[in-house]
Amino acid sequence: MIVTDPWFYVAAVPAVLIYGIGKGGLGGALGIVAVPLMALTIPPVQAAAIMMPILCVMDFFAVREHFHHADRRQLKLMLPGSIIGVTLAGLLMGYASENVLKLLIGSLSLLFCLQYLLNRESKPTRSSGWRGFGRAGFWSLLCGFSSTTIHAGGGPASIYLLPLRLEKVTLIATMAVLFGLINLAKLIPFTVLGKFDTTNMLTALVLIPLAPIGVKLGIWLLHRVSQIWVYRLCYVFLFLSGVKLFADGMISGL
C-alpha cells in the first residue's frame, strides 16, 4: 500500500526534483530541503526512508555522468572518514540527539559562510600532509554521520570542498561520487533498523521516475551557469541549509 494522501505528492514531487537538481549540478547542500518538504505531510523518519531508494537511483545517473571528472585524490581523502561516520551513525541511531547535531552543523555552516564573506579574496585552501588528511577526515566523518542521521551531509562536505576552489564540474562530480558511495553504505544501517517497509518502498517506486529528470536538469544547469555562479549558488544553499538546520534544532529543543 502506497502513501495515498494527495498533499504528500504535492510536496514530494518538487522535493525529489530539487534534490536531483542538486545532485546533477548545484551541490549537495541543495538537497537539505527535500526531507523537510516531504515531512510536511508524513513523519520525518518515513520521509527519509522513502528518499533512500530514490537517492540511489539519482546517484546512478549522477555518477554515470560525472565519474570521470571527480577529483580522485579528494575522494581518497574523504571516503575513509565518511564510511566511519556512516558506521557510527548506524550504531548510535536512536541514541544520538538529532537536535544537537542540527544545531552543530547549522552553526558550522553559518560560520563558514560568514568566513567566506570576510575572506572572499583569500587563496584556495590546499592543505597537505597530515594537516590535509586531518581536515578531510574530520569533515568527511561529520558528513557521513549527518547524512545517515538527518540527511544533511551536504553541509560538511561543502565546508571541506568549497575552499579548494575546484573547477565547477570537478566540484560537483566529486560530490556526486562521494554521496553515491555514502548512500550505498547507508543502505546497511537503514535495512538493519527496518526502515524499508512495504509502504515506504512502494511509495519510493512511484516517485523514482522523477529521479533522472531532476539529475538531468541539474546537469543542464551546470553546463550553462558560470563557475562564479555555481560557487555562489553553492554558498547560498549552504547558508540556507545552515539556517534551516539551526532553526530546527532551536525550535525542537524548546
Short structural summary:
With 254 residues, this protein is mainly alpha-helical.
Short descriptors:
single chain, 254 residues, mainly alpha, 11 helices, 77% helix, globular
Fold topology:
Layout lengths: L5 H21 L7 H5 L5 H23 L5 H21 L5 H21 L10 H22 L3 H8 L6 H25 L5 H10 L2 H13 L4 H27 L1
Helix pairs in contact: 1-3, 1-8, 1-10, 3-8, 3-9, 3-10, 4-6, 4-8, 5-11, 6-7
Low-pLDDT windows of residues: none
Radius of gyration: 17 Å
Range of strand content: under 5%
- Mean pLDDT over the full residue set: 80
The DSSP helix count reads 11
Termini distance?
36 Å
- What can be said about the biggest beta sheet? none
Q: Which percent bin holds the helix content?
A: over 70%
Shape: globular
Total beta strand runs: 0
Structural class: mainly alpha
Order of helices and strands: HHHHHHHHHHH
Describe it for me?
The protein is mainly α and about 250 residues long. The chain is built from 11 helices and no strands. α4 runs parallel beside α8 and α5 (about 100-120) runs antiparallel to α11. The N and C termini lie far apart (about 35 Å).
